[in-house]
Amino acid sequence: MGNSLVVREPVGVVGAITPWNFPLQQVITKIVPALLAGNTIVLKPAETAPLTAPILAEAAAAAGLPGGVLNIVYGLGGDVGEAITTHPGVDMVSFTGSTAVGKRIAVAASATVKRVALELGGKTANVVLPGADLDHAVAETLRYGWTNSGQACGAWTRLLVPADRHDDIVAKLVAEAAAHTVGDPRDESTLIGPLASQAQWERVNGYIERGVADGLDLVHGGPGRVPGFESGAFIRPTIFAGVDPRSVVAQEEIFGPVLSVIPYRSEDEAVEIADGTIYGLGAAVFGERDHALAVARRLAAGQVYVNGAPFNPLAPFGGYKQSGTGREMGKAGVEEFTELKAIQL
Q1: Rounded percentage of the chain residues whose pLDDT exceeds 90
Q2: For domain 4-120+323-344, is the CATH number 3.30.1780.10?
Q3: 339 is an active site residue
Q4: Looking at domain 124-306, what is its CATH homologous superfamily?
Q5: Deepest in the core among 7, 8, 48, 205, taking most CB within 10 A?
Q6: Active-site position among 119, 140, 253, 328
Q7: Catalytic one among 9, 82, 153, 272?
Q8: How far apart are CA 287 and CA 252, in angstroms?
Q9: Which regions of the chain are under pLDDT 50?
């Protein structure tokens, strides 16, 4: 580049703070690219899902990873997470979790001006365009929305549909939802297992109760325990129809199997609704390919799925707006853990 040699060097010590919903995948997403870039790592796994990390560390040691390269510290986020974030010996913090906690980490890390990568919340909108394959769109909406019992930052939680097809699509959703059985995850017929904890059940159930109290049209599921599973953290997968896009259920990240169906009357309105939250992690579009791609390019989201295309771990993953900063996965995910240096020759 001109008379400069531009190189990438390791950041140094990376503090990785990971969530409970995908405890192995989230850890690997951080430590593998960080190691490939030449860094050492201090990992704090979620206090509610700590058992996967030491198994991975044992496997890494058995494979020959030198001692001191991967370090695991257990504890509460307010204690251990805070210590990692503010420690002057930590050069970068990579955090996945809620937007609220991500904001606190960004503030705390600013005291030492360390780099911060944040993969935060989401409120993914799936825009169904006129002419889309409705059966396919409905099936994929529930598959992407209710996987892991809806406990995913990228879960498809808002379905935007043409107003004149709203009732037809809702009927298809209700029929499709009947096949999403709730039960013991060890049973092969089960599609939706329990939530991660009683606290998570209370949170999700509270949102469902709020939707009912706000007068939303409940067409499937609802608040309360799943019949036959009263003692566990099993939630009733829920669909609200005709939802006001400004409602609490349509705006806030619920982190459970709760879908809001929102009618729109023009493409511009659909884009406005899809972008009308604080989040910008993901989106989806169903329709004729070129038309869907054109709408996808208009959406303020870090990744957009067209017609149910599969997730690609080689592509960068991350969000716009309050869904975070930086990118994970692929080449961009490795570069996130490097510093750029220009050597003038």
Answers
A1: 97
A2: no
A3: no
A4: Aldehyde Dehydrogenase; Chain A, domain 2 (3.40.309.10)
A5: 205
A6: 119
A7: 153
A8: 27
A9: none
